[in-house]
């Protein structure tokens, strides 16, 4: 009996929670972490805030939520290079997700449309949720 590949679900969701003090600790102990994980635009946005760490944490949560919605998690020891291919963009409206490189190609193979992103942070926690519909 041969098995058929399962079709990609029409709706994908990823959610992640990040502990702000833990991320602050990691970023303080490993100064290159920010450059390896966050794009120049993300770093500029966060560093322009009075306390950048809740904003970094929300963006890190978004990156993990995107990976979960794509059906994969973080890979390997150290920094997963795909994190830098996921960018949280904030202009005049709500934050959006821009994909680059291999992550963009993966999303296209899955025939996904544009993801919807929601971020929040309060106290010591930051949360991101990503919902994706299959493209028509």
C-alpha termini separation: 31 Å
Radius of gyration: 15 Å
Q: What is the total domain count?
A: 1
CATH topology category name = Ribosomal Protein L22, Chain A
Helix content: 25-40%
Helix/strand/pairing category: alpha+beta
The number of helical elements comes to 5
How many strand elements?
5
CATH architecture: Alpha-Beta Complex
Q: Biggest sheet, strands in spatial order? A: 1-5-4
The biggest beta sheet, please? 3 strands, antiparallel
- Given as residue ranges, the uncertain stretches (5+ residues, pLDDT < 50) are none
Mean of all residue-level pLDDT scores: 88
What is the H/E order? EHHHHEEHEE
Q: In the CATH hierarchy, what is the class?
A: Alpha Beta
Oligomer: single chain
Tell me the CATH superfamily: 4'-phosphopantetheinyl transferase domain
Strand content: 15-25%
Give a topology summary.
Elements: E1 11-19, H1 20-29, H2 33-37, H3 40-47, H4 53-69, E2 86-89, E3 96-99, H5 101-109, E4 116-122, E5 125-133
Antiparallel strand pairs: 1-5, 2-3, 4-5
Helix pairs in contact: 1-4, 3-4
Task: Tell me what you see in this structure.
This protein has 136 residues and is an alpha+beta fold. The chain has one domain (11-133): Alpha-Beta Complex (Ribosomal Protein L22, Chain A). Helices cover 36% and strands 24% of the residues. It is built from five helices and five strands. The chain has helices spanning 20-29, 33-37, 40-47, 53-69, 101-109; strands at residues 11-19, 86-89, 96-99, 116-122, 125-133. The protein has a three-stranded antiparallel sheet. The protein has a two-stranded antiparallel ribbon with strand order 2-3. A hairpin with a 2-residue loop joins strand 4 and strand 5 (125-133). Helix 1 crosses helix 4 and helix 3 (40-47) packs antiparallel against helix 4 (53-69). The radius of gyration is 15 Å and the shape is globular. The mean pLDDT is 88.
């Amino acid at each position: 009996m041969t098995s058929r590949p399962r079709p990609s679900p029409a709706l994908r969701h990823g959610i992640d929670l990040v502990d702000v003090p833990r991320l602050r600790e990691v970023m303080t102990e490993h100064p290159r972490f920010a450059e390896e994980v966050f794009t120049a635009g993300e770093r500029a946005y966060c560093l322009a805030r009075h306390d950048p760490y809740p904003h970094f944490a929300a963006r890190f949560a978004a990156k993990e939520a995107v990976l979960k919605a794509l059906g994969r998690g973080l890979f390997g020891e150290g920094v997963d290079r795909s994190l830098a291919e996921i960018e949280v963009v904030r202009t005049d409206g709500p934050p959006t997700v821009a994909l680059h490189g291999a992550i963009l190609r993966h999303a296209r193979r899955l025939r996904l449309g544009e993801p919807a992103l929601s971020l929040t942070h309060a106290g010591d926690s930051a949360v991101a949720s990503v919902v994706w519909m299959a493209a028509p």
